[in-house]
Amino acid sequence: MQHHHARFFKKRITNAVQLTLLAVPLSFAIPQIITDSHAAEQQVSAARQYQIPAGSLSRVLSQFAAEAGIALSVDGSLTEGRQSAGLQGRYTVNAGLAALLANTGLEAATLSDGGYTLRKAEAPTQPSSNAEQLPEVNVSAAAEQESPTGPAKGYVAKRSLTATKTDTAVIESPQSIAIVTREQMDMQGVQSVSEALRYTAGVMSEANGPDPRSDFIMIRGFDSNGRDQYRDGLRAYAFNNQGGTVIEPYGLERVEILRGPSSILYGQGGPGGLVNLVSKRPTDKTVREVQAQLGSYDRKQLAADFGGLLTDDGTWSYRLTGLVRDSDTQIDHVKDDRVFIAPALTWRPSDFTTLTLLTDYQKNERGQGYQAWPRVGTLYNSAYGKISTSRFVGEPGIDKFDQERYSAGYLFEHIFNDHVLFRQNLRYQNMKTDATSVYMSGLNADQRTVGRYGGSSNEDIDNLTLDNHVQLKWAHDQFEHVALIGLDGQKMKGDVKGGFAILSDLDLYAPVYGNSSANFTRNNDVTQKLRQTGVYLQDQIKIAKKWVVTLGTRRDWATTSNRDHLDASSSSEQDDSATTWRAGLVYLADNGWAPYASYTESFLPVIGTSSPARGSTPFKPETGKQYEIGLRFQPAGKSTMLTFSLFDLTRQNLTTADLQDATGTYSIQRGEVQSRGFEAEAKTQMANGLDLVASYTHTLMEITKSNDGVQGNAPGNVPKHTATLWANYRLPESILAGMTVGGGLRYIGSRYGEDDNSYKLPSYTLVDAVLRYDLASLGDQWKGWKFALNASNLFDKEYVATCGYYGDGCKWGYRRNVMGTLTYSW
């Protein structure tokens, strides 16, 4: 647990969670379930066992508060430089505080809300008959001791850095944000970032079908294209679709979605939003876990996660996460093998300075995951029926997709005083991809064979990102300010070589492989570069502890270049600049409701120029603008979060084909797409063992400007309606101790296959399920052992995920996937 913010923030460790209210929005209905928070079975003994190691007094007190389930307010100036021998044994809350504060000259005092605060001792250290005695308290649950980048208890994370780059309560964010916690990922058995987002409102996370090369994520109807994926607040983007960055989810603590344009803090990006992946980090608490997994498609996986203190005083801590996998996929001849390791180290020389080193290495050997089949044979029957969902269009021995990636960076933070904090985050990443892929070019007249072509790509991508900002905090009268002054930058360089080949036709109903050779002709050899610098300002103003005003602006300068080594005339370099801003307002009601409204913008440089006939004018950056109003509900002391939002989002300056260009090689910026919609999302964990996640999304998209005949249409592959519901229930001991059962429903509505709206893809509903068992219920000899059985698409429904690919291609969706996981923790 990170407690080095104590002096700067005088951080309150929020009181124990007592779940009494559930509100789940589904199809505009909000059922409420009330649980009696005073039920006797929810009371926890006032005395409990502690094994807290020695260290700085601030860290030891923080760990005690987290384990005891109390709210503790600490002024860092009182604990600065003090050490503690820790706490071992069985104590009540007050006895534990007294033991920890003995001989320190400090004492704990109760607050009106039932919490505690530290102060200088006002009475003799020996108790007297007149001394004020602290009352005994019963603890009802574990405390919500949450870091914005650390573990969140259960499914409901209440603090985040993503929306503001400051440690801010989610309910105070002026923009819609969703957080998938580690506990939710473990319960649902997710194996990719896309899977982690299946139950998130406003997100289509697996619309591209089974493709292990990349996480294809759409937010509010717009494809993030890998460009808008961040890791620990730093961009993790590579240039090309072959070089998409895929992060192993076992190495993540959270997956966070910031919906809507986000250039104010992050620079260039798309209008739909961004994905921020929060890495597992060193921890003061001991973490020791090993895991074995077997599943469908001959999946075999071993994983391990270790962490804890390296020194008794808490100065050094570590984390080491790793995984190795050997697996086939639902597509014949396509593998999904992986090696992943992520060492991390934290140095905390004082309560005011922290340096965390984060490194990782990942190697993927996956084969060609992109498989598109003719629309006749997938969406529609051909004369020979439907094409097998496992059919491989490529050539065994030719197709491959090998990728190796490593990164190293650091997160530095220093607190100067109660008003000034400085952060600097840096990461260097290198990724090499060697891919050879065979694609379908179209269905032949016989309705069973397809033409094929091949593409090879060899990429070497370097990416360096740096973010610096000073955080200022001050107050006057009823106004509290948290301001940011930031400077960030990124440099990317990519060397890409590619080739092209024509291969023999393939019979999709009776394929015969090995009859085709691939003689690739070099058709691509470019060096791409990106250099971007941004300056940003933000002020979060809390007025009378009820109103939160967020104002921000940013100026960006970006230079992009494309050097063509085969055709110098095709080389280009372009300079772009943009100013973006955001304004937001949140009202914090006493009953837990928080209405909000905001306006925000984005920009994205577009490489290229208009035709010579139009003056060869460089393209303007794409822009995004969003108006959003919403309502959140977070009842005090409950592990519940409801979010409702209405948005109006416009993407401008899209490039479309220039119909006046006879060569067919030039584009023109006459495109605009509007996305409007409603989103509802609910998460709650109840005291009776029931956990619920639900979402509903209604999206209306329209191509509002275009010169290619599709103006007024809806963009392809975006459903109007999606809805999800997940529930898991820990069975009472009287029924079956240690057992958790759960399941989920995912509904994806019908959508047009292409922008011309000439055909539709049918809706589908998928069912997921989980059984988890804590083997400790069998006896002490099984303590630490847990088993889980997860099933995705339990009833093995066949469905078409998307259409509109080259050669009138469509893609099947994910088939049933069953996985067993055995975990041992100690």
Describe the structure.
- With 826 residues, the chain is mainly beta.
- It folds into three domains: 6-16 and 43-125 and 137-144, Phage tail protein beta-alpha-beta fold; 159-278, TonB-dependent receptor, plug domain (Ferric Hydroxamate Uptake Protein, Chain A, domain 1); 279-294 and 305-825, Maltoporin, Chain A (Beta Barrel).
- Helices cover 6% and strands 52% of the residues.
- The chain is built from eight helices and 48 strands.
- The strands form eleven sheets. The protein has a 22-stranded antiparallel β-barrel.
- The protein is globular, with a radius of gyration of 28 Å.
- The protein starts with 5 loop residues before the first helix and ends with a strand.
Topology (SSEs and partners):
Blueprint lengths: L5 H4 L4 E3 L4 E3 L8 E3 L12 E6 L2 E2 H12 L3 E2 L2 H4 L3 E2 L2 E6 H9 L4 E5 L5 E5 L22 E2 L14 E2 L7 E2 L7 E5 H7 L4 H4 L6 E2 L13 E2 L2 E2 L5 E3 L2 E2 L16 E8 L3 H4 L6 E7 L7 E9 L3 E11 L6 E11 L10 E14 L2 E13 L7 E2 L25 E16 L4 E24 L5 E28 L2 E29 L13 E23 L3 E18 L7 E16 L5 E12 L17 E12 L6 E18 L9 E19 L4 E16 L15 E10 L2 H4 L2 E10 L2 E2 L7 E2 L2 E11 L10 E8 L7 E6 L3 E4 L4 E9 L1
Helix pairs in contact: 2-4
- Total strands: the figure is 48
CATH superfamily of the largest domain: TonB-dependent receptor, beta-barrel domain
Q: Can you tell me the number of structural domains?
A: 3
Shape: globular
CATH architecture of the largest domain: Beta Barrel
- The CATH class of the largest domain is identified as Mainly Beta
